[in-house]
Amino acid sequence: MFAERGIKATTVRQIGASVGILSGSLYHHFGSKFDLVDAILADFCETTMASYSEIVAADDDTITKLRRMTGYAFSLIGDNPAAVLMIQNEGSMLSQQSRFQYLNTTERKVETMWIDVVRTGVKEGRIRPDVDPRIFYRIVRDSVAGSIRWYKPTPNHKIDAIAEEVITILLNGILVPGKK
Amino acid sequence: MFAERGIKATTVRQIGASVGILSGSLYHHFGSKFDLVDAILADFCETTMASYSEIVAADDDTITKLRRMTGYAFSLIGDNPAAVLMIQNEGSMLSQQSRFQYLNTTERKVETMWIDVVRTGVKEGRIRPDVDPRIFYRIVRDSVAGSIRWYKPTPNHKIDAIAEEVITILLNGILVPGKK
DNA sequence: GTCTATAAACTGATAGAC
DNA sequence: GTCTATCAGTTTATAGAC
């Protein structure tokens, strides 16, 4: 509900009604509306960070790592779309509050991991040195974030396939080589 | 203010204060809060559609058209960041109301224009036929939309340069050719 | 065209009965 | 653990003086 309507626009009465109790009863379980937001986002940030760390630490080829990181990023859309949407839509407002500082911390650490992998690829001579690692990371991140607005999961159209199409375009481009 | 805090979270008192009048006086100029939203978005959609149509109709090379369309899309971030953010954050909520149906119409028409240009490029043998035009469009669109969250305009770092870096990655990829 | 004043509804949160 | 009942504050919007 926070993701669909926004945090401010979602009332505690609506939240209570969605689980079949009244607004007053909610306060037996949570101290405030923002405690609910915190419970959703803190867990999401923790597992996201842990999963990325695991992929980066693995003994894989650099390009394979980029593929796996892209695949994981897209899998978040399927596994926790609400948290992704909340951070995307209201992250900048939330991260101004001290209790949500971990949003900034997580974003910074994830960005650093992506950029480090791209830089390694450049050193290995596999990635063109004129590619800006930050721009590359942002294209991936924003493509993932944007996919939440149009991706509808079906058995025939899995999120893995979309991740594969996106990383293929980013690795190889769309142009037919050698033509001018 | 709608873009920064969200439409629901922005009060008519805050809007009035920002232009030096009280909330009551605002209703001499606008019938409701959503009339203000409408005034911002309707104008934005109209000029965006017109500009894209002009680029597509021009007598340019297909790849040049893609470059110009990407450049124009990024220029919207600099010219009207508020409207872009409002549509990005609350577009799906707004477009459920009948008065904001033009948001859906505009989005559909813009997407069709992008896809048509990519398909032309495939027919001309310049773009690989295995590229999904929809996925390509969405990568561009979401990269543009996402840039609004990190791009800070400075004389040294113009939005045109970012547009050029993004389209270069999408056209050519990041890999060094021929390596395996 | 802006003001004062206020209506009418809604908001997050609390206290205490059951 | 949920309820009733309600507080105190805020919200959009209106009516009428200036």
Keywords:
180 residues; elongated; 0% strand; 9 helices; DNA-binding; 69% helix; mainly alpha; homodimer; Tetracycline Repressor, domain 2
Strand content of chain A: under 5%
Main β sheet profile of chain A: none
Instruction: Note the run of SSEs of chain A as H and E.
Output: HHHHHHHHH
The helix tally of chain A amounts to 9
* CATH architecture title of chain A: Orthogonal Bundle
Biggest contact: A-B, 43 and 43 residues
- Could you tell me the CATH topology label of chain A: Tetracycline Repressor, domain 2
Morphology call of chain A: elongated
CATH superfamily of chain A: Tetracycline Repressor, domain 2
Helix content of chain A: 55-70%
Going by helix content, strand content and strand pairing, the class of chain A is mainly alpha
Count of all domains of chain A? 1
Q: If you had to describe this structure to a student in words, what would you say it looks like?
A:
The first copy, chain A, contains nine helices and no strands. Chain A has a single domain, classed as Tetracycline Repressor, domain 2 (Orthogonal Bundle), CATH 1.10.357.10. Chain A is mainly α. The longest helix of chain A is centred in the N-terminal third of the chain and has 25 residues, at 33-57. Chain A is 69% helix and 0% strand. The interface between A and B is large, with 43 and 43 residues. Chain A binds a DNA duplex (18 and 18 nucleotides) through helix 3.
